[in-house]
Amino acid sequence: MSTSVAFEKAKAEGRAALVGYLPAGFPTVDGSIEALTTMVEAGCDIIEIGLPYSDPVMDGPTIQDAVQQSLDGGVRVDDVFRVVEAVAATGVPTLVMTSWNPIERRGVDRFAQQLQDAGGAGLITPDITPDFAPEWIEAADARDLDKVFLVAPSSTDERIAMTTAACRGFVYATAVMGVTGARAKTSDLAAPLVARTKQTTDLPVGVGLGVSNGAQAAEMAAYADGVIVGSAFVRTLLDNRSDEQAALKALASLTEDLAAGVRSR
Q: Does residue 262 belong to any structural domain of this protein?
């Protein structure tokens, strides 16, 4: 199911969509399925599943810690597809967020087919731009998979237009210049970037990097179509790693706070 369905539903309800991220295999493969389904039940409209990778481009220390735990646990690409299949079965659009190298190593067409077979909605590819991704664009178009590329405050108007023209599903706007991580306040670069992006496309624009609570989500939902949260979810699991039930309860509570935030714009 394309993420466009979730964005359309949120728009019809006069709110932004809540997009939640966790790496596959953190704290374990089954544990990540349980955590992600908890997030769905508590109010996430779209799920991003991180493919654990040893050389992350965007990940800050919180997500790096979680990803390393996944890798140490022996998580492989096939495990990621197992998580995708389980989460997509809830009916919520489920994306994979991944560095390009694992896709290339597996084979672009094979990766795309396995993603489709698992019920995945598409890919977020933070370290490759459309002009360097013709093979992925072709494979995605053949299967109607979402192609989510990134725009940043440093992007020129020309690069933004080129990027949004290649996207399907939504456009991912990175609100800060730097790596991921929950922040005390949201970036003042986000709203101008969303405005510039919307001048080039009718696609929804989701904003990521830094949101950690409902108040920040509400602030971002005033101008963004989607609020993307990752590090805050990961930190919640890390902070409760010794007690699985407490971790899931805290995760549900955070999700509910964020879901209320995107509804209060």
A: no
- Residue 128 inside a domain? The answer is yes
Domain count, the chain: 1
CATH code (residue 212): 3.20.20.70
Residue 184 in this model has a pLDDT that exceeds 60: no
The predicted-structure confidence for 222-254, as pLDDT tens digits, reads as follows: 999 999 998 899 899 888 888 989 999 999 999
Please state the φ and ψ torsions of residue 204, each to the nearest 5 degrees: -65, 150
Both structure tokens of 56: 């992350």
- Which tokens in the block code for residue 108? 């672009």
pTM beyond 0.85: the answer is yes
17 assigned to some structural domain: yes
Q: Yes or no: say if 205 and 160 are a contact pair by the CB < 8 Å rule.
A: no
Catalytic residues: 48, 59
Cα angle 87, 130, 48; round to 5: 15
Tell me, yes or no, whether 264 lies in a domain: no
Q: Could you tell me if 1 and 88 are in contact, meaning their C-beta atoms sit under 8 angstroms apart?
A: yes
Q: Which residues pair with 17 in a beta bridge?
A: 226
Write out the residue range of the structural domain in which residue 53 sits.
Answer: 3-256
Average pLDDT over the chain reads 90
